Amino acid sequence: MSVVYCGIDFHKRTCAVAMKDFNGKAIEKTMNIETKRLVSYLSNRKDLLIGIEASGGTNDMVEKLKASGHDVRIINPTKFRAVGIGGKKTDERDAETIADYLRTNLIPEVHHKCKSSRELKSIIIMREHLVRCRTNTVNHVRGILREYGITMKVGFENFLAEVDSCIELIKNEIISKSLKVQVEMIRKLHKDQLEMEADLMRISESSNQAQLLQTVPGIGLLGSIIMIAIVDDISRFKNAKAFASYLGLVPSEHSSGDKRRLGGITRSGSEITRRYLIHGARSVLTSPSMTMKADPNRKWAERIEHRKGRNKATVALAHRLARIAFAIIRDETKYTTKPIKKISDEIILRKAS
To answer: First-to-last CA distance in the chain?
Structure first.
């Protein structure tokens, strides 16, 4: 009864803060304050149960509020759609609605990951950004050269070997100068990428979980690290099925009455983890390695491929890899090639493309 329910509509520069008691009565007027003053504003208040929507910068703010002794709940914005109903959306109304939902215990919560897990994910995301920038710039240079009839061989190594001589063929000094600057940028991005991958390798070698995950065919260096970053605390998942659902590798469902309608996979959760698992599953299915061909999971996926096609077999195998990864992290054991207990995957296969 003494708990104060505090709803915060969090933004980069300002926040709306609403406080209500157990009966829904406003303790003080809803107000807007600067985000940088939020922690100090709430630091002297006791018995606060705080609700704050997940967005950019939320994790850091939640960490600071918890360090001040507050009980904080992170709200899943995709499941919290009551804010702004009726065409009267303001920051103050949002904060008051969050406080009301806290009071009635109807808040859809998001797990607050520890700092080390968030750091691992940030490193992977930064590497992705480097690769994307390098690839886009390479394609740009290739496209400009094609305009002048200069076609280069496929492959990044061939690009680095040929690009300088190709640029010399361009007579316009402005264009050739700009291309040389961009080629230097490409080399710098590639060097930064290799350095970051070396750092990731050192992180992997010092992590027992990462080493165990890499014993699974289809899970490599990047896949193991992003898996650790996303899982954070394995005990928060009820079972392997719940973990695969969290990653969006289960079919969407639109059922009513006695009709059950299943669609494509939900694609919820971490896109990068799901993508790495699907790429890993595809590599398992297409690898010429005899060891890979003898793997029971590949044989299982090949049977699905004969019935349903390559794409659905790939997604189904990615689902199974996620469940295997869950068991390995939970039990801290290596991957074994003994026959695995049959998983009822008919639901996964239907329209899972």
So the answer is: 50
Looking at residues 50-64, what average pLDDT do you find?
A: 92
Q: At a CB cut-off of 8 Å and minimum separation 6, what does 86 contact?
A: none
Indicate if the pLDDT at residue 353 is higher than 60. Answer: no
Structure tokens at 125: 């995301």
Neighbours of 254 (CB within 10 A): 9
Q: Please report the pLDDT score of residue 88 as a whole number.
A: 77
Q: Specify the DSSP element, H or E, that contains 159.
A: helix 156-168
Total Cβ atoms within 10 A of residue 99: 26
What are the tens digits of pLDDT across the range 270-296? Answer: 999 999 999 999 999 999 988 888 899
Per-residue confidence (pLDDT) for residue 253, from 0 to 100: 87
| Cα 177-183-187 angle, rounded to 5 deg | 145
Cβ proximity of 68 and 42 under 8 Å: yes
| Percentage of the chain lying above the pLDDT 90 cut | 75
Q: Coil, helix or strand for 100?
A: helix
Rounded Cα distance between 239 and 329, Å, is 12
Tokens of 292: 């890979």
Q: Which two tokens stand for residue 316?
A: 């189904």
Query: Edge to edge, what strands does the sheet with 109-110 contain?
Result: 26-34, 14-20, 4-10, 48-53, 71-75, 109-110
CATH number of this structure's domain 4-110, picked from the four choices 3.30.420.10, 3.40.47.10, 3.40.640.10, 3.90.1310.10: 3.30.420.10
Is the pLDDT at 175 greater than 60, yes or no? yes
pLDDT at position 71, please?
A: 93
Task: Give me the residues paired with residue 14 across strands.
Answer: 34
**Residue appearing with tokens 């992170």:** 74
- CA-CA distances (angstroms) from residue 192 to 125, 152, 158, 196, 200? 14, 24, 19, 6, 12
Name the one residue in this structure whose structure tokens are 């239907």: 350
What is the rounded CA–CA span in Å between residue 213 and residue 219?
7
Q: Report the alpha-carbon angle 259-264-269, nearest 5.
A: 115
Least confident of 103-107, 116-120, 148-152, 323-327: 103-107
d(CA 260, CA 254): 7
